[in-house]
């Protein structure tokens, strides 16, 4: 049988109808509007395909025929995530910056939310008041369409968000709900008194305990409580109502038909709530995502979907679908575990905790992939499990305390300059804010005018980036990191931002300073040109495409993490020394996986190495990495 994604629309529709109906009815069969809403859903799918432009259908076909099995597994993709206004002002201006990305090697852009969001209560655009109108701060929908067309001409890819879990309290539905319209109150979780909210809160963790304690907000106009898991201006949508599902799917299709290649589903872990649970990662949330995926696959199959599920490792992996739904949920998930573990290894100089998590991460199904990253617009959560820390021989409480102190600059001798985010006084939990460069010590090194420390911090930056470029998945850089941006403290003067220190690592790009990327000798140039080289290497080594082809090398040295990427006869060994001293591993490490290379070429340093005897050593300088191909 032909795989679902290569069939014609009609075949896709017919063969998926049963499953769409099963999934839909598992939620809405007993809802008074359920039957009618199901009819509307099918019409919506038809209409979306009918309205999909010829060029997007052609691009769908190209993607479906691409090698490797799915276009998004390719080693040719490299992304950057950015705030349009802080990067260059407007969407229109961004069109003029496409050369900059091409120069660097970036061919996938994640535009942080550009749809309408109230400036004073926006959560960086994640409180959307109109899912179809581009916020005038960034430009117009026309500008976005022009940008998409230009990117398509250049063979670049576009990623946008759908904020599925909540709307802004100024969204039309919320405005009407506040005025007392029951139909719209039913789009959210509304309660007459505190009885049910209290029940929910007994088991719900707080997301922003400092800025937005609790998970419900009192709305005085209608004298009711509404669920607000994130900030009090972000009202949680109620997917028990089929109208909410249909409306949001319609928005998803709207983005698909704009030409979005990857849809980032914001906070999918939260979309279903059940009293007595943490209200995260519930089976119903997964079923809703499976329903979205199958509808997308029928109507707009060129759009991949990405789960932004920043949860425990064994929960993240479920967003790819499991058991009979394996590889039938999200195409992508963020490898938040690996990201945090790289920060762990960088601070401790020890890779054992990172290793302890890998058996779970390797469970990712074939045909799905990660977004790999070192930094993004959010904080770094130490979201891996305590048992991983314990298995590595540490005490989890002390270990996490050390990491928090190390990165917030409270550990004697730490060069990192960051801050604690979302500190929960009750549980002691906290996450970490700070830019890649500042957390790697560049800010302190520059402030101290310490040339050696500058070199060291640049090496750390590149080590962190290299690992996420080669480990498998689509790397997503964060804007500014390509030129070593330090923390930006100007957010403290802005009332709409000062309560949220994640703004310290969301810089406003100074293009005069950024011209240094072309001036040899400057820090910006060193970081930019090295990043450019890393991206070029990634694209030139086909075995880096994510075909579930990663084998970790046995830990011959706890300071060094190494993996083999292999496909047929192609092999690349990638090694990373996280310690501040030179380290060595026996040459035997290269001979364990069915091959005994005699010569290795390092693509990064452009050197050859003769493979020595098992009693001899390969030496890695402090914070160095190697991309070694047998020759
Ligand atoms: C996601 C976003 C984060 C936002 C939250 C609520 O986690 O990445 O920035 O605060 O969702 O929408």
Describe the fold and architecture.
By secondary structure, this protein is α/β, with parallel strands linked by helices. Helices cover 36% and strands 17% of the residues. It has an eight-stranded parallel beta barrel, surrounded by four helices. A six-stranded antiparallel beta sheet has the order 18-19-20-25-22-23. Helix 1 packs antiparallel against helix 2 (34-51), helix 14 (336-348) runs antiparallel to helix 15 (352-361) and helix 14 (336-348) packs antiparallel against helix 20 (451-470). It is globular and about 75 Å long. The mean pLDDT is 96. The structure holds alpha-D-glucopyranose. The site of alpha-D-glucopyranose has 10 residues, from loops.
Structure keywords:
binds alpha-D-glucopyranose; alpha/beta; 25 strands
Low-confidence stretches at least 5 residues in length (pLDDT < 50)?
Answer: none
How does the major sheet shape up? 8 strands, parallel, barrel
**Cα-atom radius of gyration:** 24 Å
Q: How widely separated are the two ends?
A: 41 Å
What is the count of β-strands?
Answer: 25
Categorize the overall geometry. globular
**Strand line-up in the sheet with most strands:** 1-2-5-11-12-13-14-17
Helix content: 25-40%
List the ligand species.
alpha-D-glucopyranose
Strand content: 15-25%
Structural class, by secondary structure, is: alpha/beta
Could you give the topology of this structure?
Layout lengths: L8 H20 L5 H18 L2 H11 L14 E4 L1 H5 L2 H6 L1 H7 L3 E4 L3 E2 L13 E5 L6 H13 L3 E7 L2 E3 L3 H7 L3 H4 L4 E2 L3 H7 L14 E4 L4 E4 L6 E3 L5 H17 L3 E5 L16 H17 L4 E5 L4 H4 L15 E3 L1 H13 L3 H10 L7 E4 L13 H6 L4 H12 L11 E3 L9 E3 L2 H4 L2 H6 L3 H20 L3 E5 L32 H4 L8 H18 L9 E3 L7 E8 L2 E8 L5 E4 L12 E4 L4 E4 L6 E4 L4 E6 L1
Parallel strand pairs: 1-2, 1-17, 2-5, 5-11, 11-12, 12-13, 13-14, 14-17
Antiparallel strand pairs: 3-4, 6-10, 7-9, 8-9, 15-16, 18-19, 19-20, 20-25, 21-24, 22-23, 22-25
Bound molecules: alpha-D-glucopyranose.
The site of alpha-D-glucopyranose has 10 residues, from loops.
């Amino acid at each position: 049988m032909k795989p679902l994604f290569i069939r014609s629309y009609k075949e896709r529709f017919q063969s998926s109808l049963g499953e769409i109906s099963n999934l839909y009815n598992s939620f809405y069969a007993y809802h008074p509007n359920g039957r009618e809403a199901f009819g509307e859903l099918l019409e919506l799918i038809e209409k979306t395909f009918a309205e999909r432009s010829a060029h997007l259908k052609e691009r769908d076909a190209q993607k479906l025929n691409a090698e490797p099995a799915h276009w998004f597994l390719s080693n040719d993709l490299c992304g950057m995530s950015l705030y349009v206004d802080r990067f260059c002002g407007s969407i229109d201006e961004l069109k003029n910056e496409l050369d900059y990305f091409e120069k660097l090697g970036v061919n996938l852009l994640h535009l942080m939310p550009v749809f309408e969001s109230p400036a004073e209560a926006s959560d960086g655009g994640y409180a959307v008041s109109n899912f179809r109108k581009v916020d005038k701060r960034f430009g117009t929908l026309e500008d976005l369409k022009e940008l998409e067309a230009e990117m398509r001409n250049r063979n670049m890819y576009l990623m946008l968000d759908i904020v599925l879990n909540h709307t802004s309290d100024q969204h039309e539905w919320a405005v009407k709900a506040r005025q007392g319209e029951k139909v719209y109150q039913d789009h959210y979780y509304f309660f007459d008194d505190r009885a049910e909210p209290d029940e929910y809160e007994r088991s719900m963790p707080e997301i922003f305990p400092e800025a937005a304690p609790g998970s419900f907000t009192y709305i005085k106009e209608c004298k009711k409580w509404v669920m607000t898991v994130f900030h009090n201006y972000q009202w949680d949508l109620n997917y028990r109502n089929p109208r909410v599902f249909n409306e949001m799917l319609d928005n998803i299709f709207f983005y698909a038909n704009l030409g979005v290649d990857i849809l980032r589903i914001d906070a999918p872990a939260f979309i279903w709530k059940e009293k007595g649970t943490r209200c995260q990662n519930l089976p119903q949330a997964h079923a809703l995502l499976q329903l979205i995926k199958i509808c997308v696959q029928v109507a707009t199959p060129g759009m991949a979907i990405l789960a932004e599920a920043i949860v425990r490792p064994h929960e993240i992996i479920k967003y790819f679908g499991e058991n009979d739904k394996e590889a039938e949920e999200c195409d992508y998930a963020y490898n938040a575990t690996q990201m945090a573990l790289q920060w762990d290894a960088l601070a401790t100089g020890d890779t054992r905790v990172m290793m302890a998590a890998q058996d779970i991460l390797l469970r990712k199904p074939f045909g799905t992939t990660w977004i790999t990253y070192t930094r993004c617009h959010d904080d770094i959560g130490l979201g891996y499990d305590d048992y991983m820390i314990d298995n590595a021989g540490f005490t989890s409480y002390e270990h996490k305390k050390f990491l928090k102190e190390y990165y917030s600059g409270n550990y004697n001798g730490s060069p990192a300059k960051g801050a604690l985010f979302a500190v929960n006084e009750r549980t002691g939990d906290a996450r970490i804010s700070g830019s890649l460069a500042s957390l790697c010590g560049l800010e302190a090194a520059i402030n101290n005018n310490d040339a050696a420390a500058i070199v060291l911090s640049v090496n750390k930056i590149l080590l962190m980036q290299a690992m996420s470029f080669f480990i498998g998945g689509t790397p997503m850089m964060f804007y500014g990191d390509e030129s070593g941006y330090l923390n930006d403290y100007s957010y403290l003067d802005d009332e709409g931002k000062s309560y949220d220190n994640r703004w310290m690592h969301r810089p406003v790009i100074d293009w005069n300073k950024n011209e240094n990327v072309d001036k040899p000798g400057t820090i910006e140039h060193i970081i930019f040109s090295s990043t450019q080289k890393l991206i070029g290497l990634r694209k030139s080594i086909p075995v880096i495409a994510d075909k579930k082809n990663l084998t970790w090398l046995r830990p011959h040295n706890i300071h060094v993490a190494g993996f083999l990427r292999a496909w047929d006869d192609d092999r690349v060994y990638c090694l990373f020394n996280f310690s501040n001293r030179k380290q060595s591993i026996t040459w035997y490490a290269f001979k364990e996986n069915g091959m005994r290379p005699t010569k290795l070429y390092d693509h990064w340093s452009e050197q050859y190495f003769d493979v020595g005897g098992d009693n001899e050593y390969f030496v890695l300088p402090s914070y160095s990495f190697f991309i070694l191909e047998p020759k």
